[in-house]
Amino acid sequence: MKAALQWVDGVCFMGESGSGHAVVMDGAPEGGGRNLGPRPMELLLLGTAGCTSYDVITILKKARQDVRDCRVSIEAARADEDPKVFTRIHFHFELTGRALKAEVVERALSLSAEKYCSASIMLGKTAEITHDYVLREA
């Protein structure tokens, strides 16, 4: 896997993924930025949510669950001192489908958290990671 990063100015950077997708990262005005894009640590959270959601949806579909929508809210806390690593991350899944089985959803969440999601397993080295979910009927 490869990626590239180009400094734009101030604390603004343009990142390009190995697959050719670009993203602007910037800081808050009080930190010297112009708020032109998400902070790098915000992208880390979003990427982790994407990673675990990918797993959960894939597992549910393989289990023949009729999942129609997946939304994840994330709350995180960081250390007060440098390096300001994540110390706590909570993922709240809202899954919509037809007759989704709670035990299958719980298994999908556990498999992602403990076996498949590289991002959350890596962040779990410094952060307590938790998750919960609600099921909504389509």
TrEMBL record:
<dbReference type="InterPro" id="IPR003718">
    <property type="entry name" value="OsmC/Ohr_fam"/>
</dbReference>
<dbReference type="InterPro" id="IPR015946">
    <property type="entry name" value="KH_dom-like_a/b"/>
</dbReference>
<dbReference type="Pfam" id="PF02566">
    <property type="entry name" value="OsmC"/>
</dbReference>
<dbReference type="InterPro" id="IPR036102">
    <property type="entry name" value="OsmC/Ohrsf"/>
</dbReference>
<protein>
    <submittedName>
        <fullName>Putative redox protein</fullName>
    </submittedName>
</protein>
